Amino acid sequence: MRKGTNREAANLWRRPSRIVLAVSIDESDNPNIIVLGWKMQTSIHPPMVAISIGKTRYSHGLLLSSGEFVLAIPGRDLAEEVLYCGTHSGRDVDKFKETNLTAISASKVKPPLIKECIANIECKIVGNLDTGDHTIFVGEVQANWVSEEEQKNLLSIGQEAGYEIMLDKKGRRFGVIR
Ligand SMILES: Cc1cc2nc3c(=O)[nH]c(=O)nc-3n(C[C@H](O)[C@H](O)[C@H](O)COP(=O)(O)O)c2cc1C
């Protein structure tokens, strides 16, 4: 073992990582999309998820003021759109317009779903936690939507080239990403 940097060690345990999108709205109901690598499921009953948002992001203020978001799960076909949303701010651009992603009305929250995504999860924010330069927002799931199209591979970031099964036993499948 040798001493490593924070970035080196973090990349070893968090890459590759699945990418999600969070949609929030401003006071005029204009929607904005942020790309997130930092997310997790935190409860089954009731279903809850947590997302970690940088305090400098435009989305940070929208989440604080609106109290709702939609977690949208992109497939591998949305890589260009995801790159755009993750490298531009809603302060400067309308990301739905620029990417041609389609906003469709949600059932329980004001931010819209993204039609092209594999799944959309409507969430109401029930708590938040200050963690350094990010805030963790905890959302309670209000409704779930899944695509009726053929299942697409989920989009990840990092070095990923397949999944090799090492042990498939007792209903658990362990493997390594090649
Ligand atoms: C692959 C990827 C993962 C990202 N993960 C996060 C994240 O977990 N939390 C975060 O605050 N920003 C994350 N970002 C950065 C934001 O998506 C980016 O700063 C975005 O432009 C912010 O948009 P906004 O200013 O419209 O909110 C990520 C970007 C990319 C490309």
Query: Which hetero ligands occur in this complex?
Result: flavin mononucleotide
> What name goes with the CATH superfamily?
Electron Transport, Fmn-binding Protein, Chain A
Q: Quickly give the CATH architecture.
A: Roll
Strand residue content = 35-45%
CATH first level: which class? Mainly Beta
Any overview of this molecule?
The chain has 178 residues and is an alpha+beta fold. It is built from 4 helices and 13 strands. The strands form 4 sheets. A 7-stranded antiparallel beta sheet has the order 3-2-6-9-10-5-4. A hairpin with a 5-residue loop joins strand 2 and strand 3. Bound molecules: flavin mononucleotide (FMN). Flavin mononucleotide binds next to strand 3, strand 5, helix 2 and helix 3. The site of flavin mononucleotide has 20 residues, from strand 3, strand 5, helix 2 and helix 3.
Care to give the gist of this entry?
The protein is an alpha+beta fold. The protein has helices spanning 6-14, 58-66, 79-87, 95-99; strands at 17-18, 20-25, 31-36, 39-43, 48-54, 68-73, 103-104, 113-114, 119-131, 134-146, 156-157, 163-169, 172-177.
What are the salient characteristics of this protein?
single chain; 178 residues; alpha+beta; Pnp Oxidase, Chain A; seven-stranded antiparallel beta sheet; two-stranded antiparallel sheet; 4 helices; globular; binds flavin mononucleotide
Topology, pairings included?
Layout lengths: L5 H9 L2 E2 L1 E6 L5 E6 L2 E5 L4 E7 L3 H9 L1 E6 L5 H9 L7 H5 L3 E2 L8 E2 L4 E13 L2 E13 L9 E2 L5 E7 L2 E6 L1
Antiparallel strand pairs: 1-11, 2-3, 2-6, 4-5, 5-10, 6-9, 7-8, 9-10, 12-13
This protein binds flavin mononucleotide.
